[in-house]
Amino acid sequence: MESKQLVAELKAKLGEANFTFTFDEKHDKLRLEHKKIGRGMDISLPEILTKYEKKKQQAIDEVIYTIEQTFLAMQREKEQGFGGLASVYPIIRSTSFPKKSNEGHAFVMTDHTAETRIYYALDLGTTYRLIDESMLSKLNVTEEHIREAARFSVKKLPTSVKRDEVSGNVYYFLNQNDGYDASRILNESFLKEMESQIEGEMTVSVPHQDVLIIGDIRNEVGYDVLAQMTMHFFTVGAVPITSLSFVYENGHLEPIFILAKNKVKKEQEEK
Questions:
Q1: Cα separation of 25 and 156, whole Å?
Q2: pLDDT tens, 195-227?
Q3: Are 105 and 134 spatial neighbours (Cβ–Cβ below 8 Å)?
Q4: N or C: which end of the chain has fewer CB within 10 A?
């Protein structure tokens, strides 16, 4: 499938009664404007096409669902206004993720690691909206209020994990599919609790939005397994974050490269 075919498919699925489609062939993206709500969104076509090669029609269905839920949230926001701070949650994204909204407003952000950055979202039920600076006055809050509310909210999220053992190494998977799985990396009490169970070296991975992996690495094979695992999740995730893992020690996250059977700390690699 090519970009033009994808645009035609989206037009057929969404219909043109409520939407205006503007195909930017030069930058290979689609601008979608909702006629009634008066707002729009940009869609990167290459990302969808890559997923289409693996998932076929499922990839189209997923993007249609995301588009419909996003505009439904916009409509709800327009009719009902914003929810309270109890609906604010932190979102982990890669450092390459856009820093501004489609309207050009800077998102509220906090530095996290060299690979990741913290954004903040208003939970709207089936979807959420990233908070930008223009929304602060509507919410009547400051950026610090947002950050504090998010720190509190993430601690309330369930942290049950599934355990798997491979070649003497143990891996724990957190996958609630609530949109905030990777956000659990910000729950310090949860990480410390897991650390108390670890016999080897503790690693934490957030390859995409909907999974968090904690590794109990007890031998060199464990690093190879972890590298393959995180790369797989990174490539299949709807919202990829980073294929790198982090060593967790004394409350700190340190990115590592895993090469063959050797693990090299990122800082050493860059020297």
A1: 44
A2: 999 999 999 999 999 999 999 999 999 999 999
A3: yes
A4: C
